[in-house]
Q: What sequence folds into this?
């Protein structure tokens, strides 16, 4: 619509056409109001029955909520109107009527249950709170891309249909690829590493990852969005610096550009993490978890950190932090060990009660890499497309991946990761 004016831009004295959804219809007898909502806000349309054509009044008041309408009229100042202005209509057009029974009412103050909302995302995202989350998510990705530009990265896109998995064999989704076994990719890991050996040197990707997670939890998805970074000629410490830079940039972007959305969600104390994220070694982490006394059994060297332990340590530390120097045996084959072989350069970043990032320095020496495959029970031949490039000049390199939904979830303290995905994929949900 060429001549459309947004609700928030309607200025007294002008004759405008607003178009949007019938948010609310209030008939008070001699006077009736239609509230029209668009993405910028709401505006009141006033129908004074005695002073107006019956047809016009009927068009504007005898319609169902959530119908799409276009209203033309003069904008007037009106103290009693919710936004201080209202439109005195000359014409009302119902462009797309809505059925009277809505599966979910966007104007209801109390929201519907999450499954109903997810089944009707279009209507759900007419609610300001739900919409605000996705506007913030978009800002997070915009700010992250800008931070990657500051880091002089090139954005890449890698295949999502692949021949091999990388993050442990049990979590793959198998598919059939022209009669051949294939999988949905769990991570751009191997491809991003191949690119640091190319002329690009430093890359990032924002794209889907697919994991046949066993558990249905509030923080796992079967299709998630991974924000991946990989760079030649840096070590794990510099990778953690870059990670901190990108996460902080995302918070800064939201603080600067999403004040309305934060208001809508009721955050009056949204803050950008100021301090450098502490870097605890794995050994310190298990000692501190054991000292909280929150676990029934004490952790011993070599254990992965259990969810309860992560929570206890998160409350203890209080903000984002890294866990470094993990035992080599519990990190994947592509992570480089420290010289002693016992400890790895792998790291996780916690935010603070759940894992947000994994990364590390990579094994770039061909012979060590092939040995690592064998130690993990993987067939190096299946990965030949990857390992062979390590024979032709692969620089030392490091990188990491942030789960975009976890970043939004932890930033906004959302109770369920599904709040941060338009159309989540979980064990029960394959559509919409
Ligand atoms: P009439 O306009 O013919 O007198 P009425 O008696 O139904 O019709 P009012 O008494 O003016 O209407 O108002 C009814 C209610 O609507 C009152 O509570 C009034 O405060 C409110 N109201 C009137 N005009 C507006 C407006 N432009 N915006 C918001 N609320 C209004
Ligand atoms: P990892 O498997 O730890 O590491 O994944 C990185 C980050 O991605 C997010 N994530 C998920 N989010 C929601 N649902 C899931 N099922 C899910 N799985 C992962 C998390 C997690 O921290 N290749 C390495 C990264 C690297 O070393 O560069 C990897 O995939 O936020």
A:
């Amino acid at each position: 619509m060429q001549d459309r004016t947004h609700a928030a831009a309607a200025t007294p004295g002008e004759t405008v056409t607003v178009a949007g959804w019938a948010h609310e219809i209030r008939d008070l007898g001699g006077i009736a109001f239609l509230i029209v909502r668009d993405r910028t806000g709401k505006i009141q349309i006033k129908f004074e029955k005695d002073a107006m054509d019956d047809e016009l009044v009927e068009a504007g008041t005898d319609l169902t909520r959530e119908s799409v309408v276009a209203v033309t009229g003069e904008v007037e100042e009106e103290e009693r109107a919710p936004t201080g202005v209202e439109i005195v209509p000359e014409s009302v057009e119902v462009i797309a009527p809505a059925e009277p029974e809505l599966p979910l009412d966007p104007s209801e103050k109390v929201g519907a249950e999450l499954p109903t909302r997810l089944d009707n995302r279009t209507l759900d995202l007419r609610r300001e709170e739900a919409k605000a989350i996705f506007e913030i998510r978009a800002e997070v990705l915009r700010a992250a891309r800008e931070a990657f530009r500051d880091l002089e990265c090139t954005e890449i896109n890698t295949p999502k249909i692949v021949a091999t998995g990388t993050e442990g064999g049990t979590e793959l989704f198998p598919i059939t690829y022209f009669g051949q076994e294939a999988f949905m990719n769990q991570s751009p890991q191997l491809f991003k590493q191949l690119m640091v050996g190319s002329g690009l040197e430093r890359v990032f990707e924002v794209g889907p990852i697919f994991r046949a997670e066993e558990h249905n939890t509030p923080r796992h998805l079967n299709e998630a969005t991974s924000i991946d970074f990989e760079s030649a000629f840096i070590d794990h410490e510099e990778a953690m610096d870059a990670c901190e830079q990108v996460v902080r940039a995302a918070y800064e972007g939201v603080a600067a550009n999403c004040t309305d959305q934060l208001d809508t969600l009721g955050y009056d104390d949204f803050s950008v993490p100021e301090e450098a994220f502490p870097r605890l070694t794995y050994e310190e982490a298990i000692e501190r978890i054991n000292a909280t006394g929150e676990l029934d059994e004490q952790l011993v060297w070599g254990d992965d950190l259990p969810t309860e332990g992560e929570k206890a340590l998160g409350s203890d530390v209080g903000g984002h932090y890294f866990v470094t120097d993990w035992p080599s045996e519990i990190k994947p084959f592509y992570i480089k060990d420290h010289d002693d072989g016992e400890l790895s350069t792998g790291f996780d970043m916690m935010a603070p009660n759940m894992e947000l990032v994994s990364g590390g320095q990579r094994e770039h020496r061909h012979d060590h890499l092939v040995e690592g495959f064998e130690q993990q029970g993987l067939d190096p031949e299946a990965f030949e497309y990857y390992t062979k490039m390590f024979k032709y000049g692969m620089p030392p390199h490091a990188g990491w991946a942030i789960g975009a939904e976890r970043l939004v979830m932890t930033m906004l303290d959302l109770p369920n990761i599904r709040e941060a995905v338009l159309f989540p994929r979980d064990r029960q949900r394959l559509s919409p």
User: Anything to note?
Assistant: The chain has twelve helices and 16 strands. The mean pLDDT is 95.
